[in-house]
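Fold in tokens:
===
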Amino acid sequence: EDMVIASRLKEVETPAQLENLVRRLKEETDGIPVAYKFGAGHYLEKEMDIAINAGVDVIVIDGAEAGSHAGQPLLSDDFGLPTLYAITRAADHLTRKGLKDKISLIASGGLLNPGHFLKAMALGADAVYIGTIAIMALVYTQFIETVPQEPPTELVLFTGKAKEELDVDLAAQSLANFLKSCVDEMVLGAQALGKESLADVSREDLVALTREAAEITGVDLGYRLHERDARNQIEPLKPLVAKQLIIEAERKGV
């Protein structure tokens, strides 16, 4: 029998139904924190408000660069806001509503390395989560089992031709090594900035390399806009002007 994955939770069609679901989840789990994940779009703030009013504890923003296990290529490639836009807007919205310290923000979508993770946190995310790069880390030491005949993903796909060749324990250790090294490098980066905690990194620690990036993120430009001093333009002309005035005066017999 084919497995059908619905595009959304069938029992949640309205904001009120989402609120009921969140309340029921907390009641049945003795108050365990509830996270709400959605793909970032142009109406991101309105969607966040629905989740906030429903009583969620964590908001997870999935940027357009995120992978998908079953999405149509058109939806994956051409819909949604890029992760950079999404993190900035989501963090700003929580700050405006005075909820930055009450609701956690998790960012995802195209984040691949410690530098990406640390920058996401500096922009306002409390944490990040990963998907595609985690799969790559799983097979990092075992891809030789498939290449060059097949891609390494054949080791981890449910229908993969080489899934029986995957050493699960070795894969788990490879992923653990990747995650630990990411944390170690993020800590190193924070220390280089003079921070005592990863949570202390902020937009003040970032600079933008383009005007567009500065406008999107609200961080300072990494360069100064140089305007030529008018005096510097005039000074070299003074001798020429004086000489011309003398010539004009002599011509007129002054």
User: Anything to note?
Assistant: The first strand starts at residue 35 and ends at 39. The mean pLDDT is 90. The radius of gyration is 28 Å.
